[in-house]
Amino acid sequence: QVQLVETGGGLVQAGGSLRLACAASGRTFSTYAMGWFRQTPGKEREFVAGISPSGASTWYGDSVKGRFTVSRDNAKNTVYLQMNSLKPEDTAVYLCAGRARNEWAYWGQGTQVTVSS
């Protein structure tokens, strides 16, 4: 079983930056893709960014392209989300997920990001 714990959320002014981290338990971290999603009340969960097991490939949702960067450190079992040029509409609970068996099988509890205008 894989456990994921997100940290790094908080309150930031529009135009600012935050770096989220997601620490994973288990020895198989380097074998599965990781992703970041976000959730706001009344809206569907939105894909934010994904990264391949080695970190060589990344992909992003349209709303964050050019502003957010996903990375991972397999030696530390951690995936990161660097968020720059934050906007009020980026306010959400951010969750990390691990992909296994062709689905997002593992989820963290999330960390709140609030961007003030």
Helices and strands, in order, run as EEEEEEEEEEE
- Stretches where pLDDT falls below 50 for ≥5 residues? none
Shape: globular
The average pLDDT value, as a whole number, equals 96
Beta-strand percentage range: over 45%
Secondary structural class: mainly beta
- Helix fraction, binned, reads under 10%
What can be said about this structure in brief?
It is built from no helices and eleven strands. With 117 residues, it is mostly beta strands. Strands 2, 4, 5, 6, 9, 10 and 11 form a seven-stranded mixed sheet that branches. It has a four-stranded antiparallel sheet with strand order 1-3-8-7, with no helix packed on it.
Structure description:
The structure is a single chain. The protein is mostly beta strands and 117 residues long. It contains no helices and eleven strands. It has strands at residues 4-7, 10-13, 18-24, 34-39, 46-51, 58-60, 68-73, 78-83, 92-100, 103-107, 111-116. The strands form two sheets. Strands 2, 4, 5, 6, 9, 10 and 11 form a seven-stranded mixed sheet that branches. Strands 1-3-8-7 form a four-stranded antiparallel sheet, with no helix packed on it. A hairpin with a 2-residue loop joins β9 (92-100) and β10. The chain is globular. It starts with a strand and ends with a strand.
Give the tags.
mainly beta, 117 residues, 11 strands, four-stranded antiparallel beta sheet, seven-stranded mixed beta sheet, 53% strand
Helix/strand layout:
Layout: E1 4-7, E2 10-13, E3 18-24, E4 34-39, E5 46-51, E6 58-60, E7 68-73, E8 78-83, E9 92-100, E10 103-107, E11 111-116
Parallel strand pairs: 2-11
Antiparallel strand pairs: 1-3, 3-8, 4-5, 4-9, 5-6, 7-8, 9-10, 9-11
